[in-house]
Amino acid sequence: TSFSTPKKKKRDDGMREHVTGCARSEGYYKIDKKDKLKYLNNSRAFAEEPPADTQVRTIPAQPHASTRAGSERRSEQRRLLSSFTGSCDSDLLKFNQLKFRKKKLKFCKSHIHDWGLFAMEPIAADEMVIEYVGQNIRQVIADMREKRYEDEGIGSSYMFRVDHDTIIDATKCGNFARFINHSCNPNCYAKVITVESQKKIVIYSKQHINVNEEITYDYKFPIEDVKIPCLCGSENCRGTLN
């Protein structure tokens, strides 16, 4: 039952030769430190060896793929903006810019009413501030939802009319734009633009807006008998929203 295992042979270069032809089939065995050092010295010498040809070759460092792709996208956008300015709709270009880099905004307590939207960076005049996002619904659905919201105790209305047939409801599905308060002397205004045959509501800046300044626009509610009081506190306040 006992038999002698074949003695491990060494190759001419000093490395152990595998009898079975595969290191995995021979199990674990310890490698001498001398053999390790010899192998490491050989690999270092091979790595430091200069190329065979005498011509000096320098390969420039390649930037990371994601960094290069981002730089190419930005340069492509700048090229398109410079080439299309004046020949295409400026609103569409601004909307693409707004999607590419959103304005830094935050919502917090407002002195006008409940919550408000505030700028976290300076915003120049005639710039797109934010898109009013919500669900596009018809007038019939808007009337049904308005009654349901009243029954649920939702006092504020976040419905924005696009045209005669379409209304954007941001009550339960929207973004920060629904927190913008009304003002009789606003620093922004709302505008309906068409992007890919779809109407969108975008808030534009009327003037330069400073950091931590509240974003406001005129709701332009229709005149009704039941008045909604205005709390904007501006000098030319009309007193009511409608």
From TrEMBL:
Coiled-coil spans in chain: none
One GO MF annotation is: RNA binding
Q: Which CDD domains did the record assign? A: SET_SETD1 (cd19169)
Q: Where does it mainly reside?
A: nucleus
Question: InterPro entries, alphabetically?
Answer: COMPASS_Set1_N-SET, Post-SET_dom, Set1-like, SET_dom, SET_dom_sf, SET_SETD1A/B
Q: Which residues form the Post-SET domain?
A: 226-242
> Which intervals of the chain are annotated as region Disordered?
42-76
Q: Which Pfam families match?
A: N-SET (PF11764), SET (PF00856)
Q: Give the UniProt subcellular location, in the record's own words.
A: Nucleus
GO cellular component labels = Set1C/COMPASS complex
What processes in GO biological process is this protein linked to? methylation
Nucleus found in the keyword field: yes
Does the keyword Nucleus feature in the UniProt annotation? yes
Keyword entries, A-Z: Chromatin regulator, Methyltransferase, Nucleus, RNA-binding, S-adenosyl-L-methionine, Transcription, Transcription regulation, Transferase
Which stretches make up the SET domain? 103-220
In Swiss-Prot or TrEMBL terms, this protein is called SET1B methyltransferase
Write down the species: Pampusana beccarii (Western bronze ground-dove)
Upper classification of the source organism reads: Eukaryota, Metazoa, Chordata, Craniata, Vertebrata
Question: What gene, per UniProt, encodes this protein?
Answer: Setd1b_0
